[in-house]
Amino acid sequence: LSNRRMFARNFVLIAMTTMFIISVVKSSLALSLGLVGALSIVRFRTAIKEPEELAFLFITIAIGLGLGADQRIITIVAVLVIIALIILRNRFLYKPTLDQNLHLTISSSKPEKISLDQIVSILEKHCSMVNLRRFDETDDIIEATFLANFRDYQDIENTRSELVELSESVKITFLDSQGTY
Question: What is the pTM of this model?
Answer without folding.
Answer: 0.48
